[in-house]
Amino acid sequence: MFSVTLRSLGRQVHQQNKSLAPLFTYSKNGLNTEASFDTKPFKLHKLEEGPSTSVTLSRQDALKYYKDMQMIRRMETAAGNLYKEKIIRGFCHLYSGQVCFHFFHFLSTKYSIKFILLSQEACCVGMRASMRSYDAVITAYRAHGWTYMMGVDPVGVLAELTGRNTGCQRGKGGSMHMYIKNFYGGNGIVGAQQPLGAGVALALKYQGTDGVCLTLYGDGAANQGQLYEAMNIAQLWKLPVIFICENNGYGMGTSVDRASASTNYYTRGDYVPGIWVDGMDVLAVREATRFAIDHCATGKGPMVMEVVTYRYSGHSMSDPGTSYRSRDEIQEVRQTRDPITGFRERLLTTSLATAEELKDIDQEVRQVIEDAVKRAKADKEIGLEELTADISCNPIDTRVRGVTAFDTLTHRRLGPAVNNH
């Protein structure tokens, strides 16, 4: 069943996008160096005012956002293909919404439809654009895109997925456990990152900076009790944490309308201020995140942000994603809300970029990902001697339990500790 909330949103955004003409531009060498747009209005909870709906975009930022979103999409498409080739094993949750191949092959052959994969790229790209260098992020199990945005190159991501020594965790973390400075990784347990994010925010407050922790979770985890415990202590202690619900319409195979008595996730912090944002618009996400960071960084306590997005794929690679929603639903969202094609149209209609420039970016991204895939396939796996390496930062006891309590191994320190405060 198609979520009533998402159907209504799709139509509203489609109409809104038709009127997103630039308010003003500055020209140089035939191309505009800056343009302003109107975004879809934000919805507010316990806030007297929210972000401005008038958004200014520079040409430099426009090209960067476009490239980043394309990089994540192609990287995740490559990950999906590697999974189908059985080179990636175990769990694999794609941030880009890799579509079930057989489903689209059927539609392509029967209806001659060419498909562009639609996803959640605008969420992490928009949020990252407003973060400071010392702000932190912790997310759920769709962590590949965030890992890239926080500084790990595509080789580091894809090689980690294939279990090779060039992976960002030397192949030991896999899909849900990637880390880098100020990125506290994906978390495989539903909702586990919610109280951890509050803890990271507490650490940032102890450090005496105005750093903020972005704590992301899906709509399926929005009914977890630990979320409200974390919100309560965050509000009491005025912790600088943004609880971000990435609402893609489905918790596994269950529509939000069937799973939640209230689907206004931005209001569910009760005493915590909240904001709703169109998660398929990278500029709206950027502005909302900037607003939320300013709120939290000035000692006002936490905020809840709901970013409404979508996934074409199933919950994970093992879920075809077609048994609980219709083909018409997916097609409607693809046509009206795709974050990359919509952004591309903005750049072209405002002369922030030429079609040839964007084509060059596409080709560059394609080559980067193709090279990364080759590395991820060819590089070596770590040896067994690294099995017990880098488990703890400064272990008091270096003995590690083996298969039995009588079979002990020795902890080794090989690499630097990440996010060791």
Largest sheet, if any?
6 strands, mixed
CATH architecture heading of the largest domain: 3-Layer(aba) Sandwich
CATH topology of the largest domain: Rossmann fold
Give Rg in angstroms.
Answer: 22 Å
In terms of per-residue confidence, which ranges show pLDDT below 50 for 5 or more consecutive residues?
A: 17-21, 97-118
Under the CATH scheme, which class of the largest domain?
Alpha Beta
Strand order of the largest sheet: 3-10-11-7-6-5
Gap between N and C termini, in Å? 47 Å
Total helices: the number is 13
Helix and strand pattern = HEEEEHHHEHHHEHEEEHEHEHHHEE
How many DSSP-defined strands?
A: 13
Going by CATH, what is the homologous superfamily of the largest domain?
A: Thiamin diphosphate (ThDP)-binding fold, Pyr/PP domains
Overall average pLDDT: 85
Beta-strand share of residues: 5-15%
Number of domains: 2
Measured as a percent range, the helix fraction is 25-40%
Q: Please identify the structural class as seen in this structure.
A: alpha/beta
Please tell me what the overall shape is. Answer: globular
